[in-house]
């Protein structure tokens, strides 16, 4: 597996692994099987492991993020900490405001919460240091400079090595970068989600910040392996792009990916990931996608994308995919939940 250097001299494997795939979001999970998948990823050289304090089934009686996925990753780290570049996130509280409960904040970024979240993540992960610590979503009630200053305290204390931001705008990135070096921005970027190209990616290039695309395979849609029944049983079925009308309409975009894959003797997933690598190279942007999976065989398939070369005809065809997509990428009703809703 090749390596990539993101911002702030953070070196990672060229492909990462998104831990959210091993949670209830995509259906039931088995922790032992999930641990096997994580070990398979590291065995394949996919050593950049991404998790978050909010990933995992909420626990009865637990106030805030359950940390279930972090505890799973801790089982991997127990034997392989030196093999792993560990990324985790904080800032999403796991609380959804309901009618009459307006005080339930979905995000927090105040300094006290930053410090509390760090200690809880370190405990759940059973580690002394986090390699890359992201602000998962910014708190609109707290200046991002205040949040990042509190995160920087963790770097000074030796508990965190590098800082990252998720779903930030270009202006938010610049404000944060003025406080402390930012190694990476994590946001959705793929053949069917390209809004970050307007402002966020140019700001990353300008600031020397790497980019970590989440959902690089369109939550599995771009692989061409999903069925309507599969997505109906998990969170994807309630989102705009996977709805009945849009599911059918978006098959036209999927056909373009499949055509390129057949011509290059590759899989849809490999083509979608290779497009991200080539798009990053053309922009001058270090790019490390973090697809998730529950199948060890998919890890090997995805890893092969690092060496797949897309010719100009392939790039031209793939660049048009986003124009065929029906439905927004946002998975919640609040437009400000994603960066383009705040630009």
Overall form? globular
Sequence stretches where pLDDT stays below 50 over 5 or more residues? 97-101
Rg from alpha-carbon coordinates = 19 Å
Binned, the helix content reads: 25-40%
The helix-strand sequence is EEEHEHEHEHEHEHEHHHHHH
Class of secondary structure makeup: alpha/beta
Q: Write out the CATH superfamily name.
A: NADP-dependent oxidoreductase domain
Fold-level CATH name: TIM Barrel
What is the average per-residue confidence, as pLDDT, rounded to a whole number?
Answer: 93
Widest sheet, order of strands: 3-4-5-6-7-8-9
Structurally, the number of domains stands at 1
**What's the number of helices?**
12
CATH architecture descriptor text:
Alpha-Beta Barrel
CATH class category label? Alpha Beta
Distance between the termini: 36 Å
Report the portion of residues in β strands: 5-15%
By DSSP, the count of extended strands is 9
Describe the largest sheet.
Answer: 7 strands, parallel
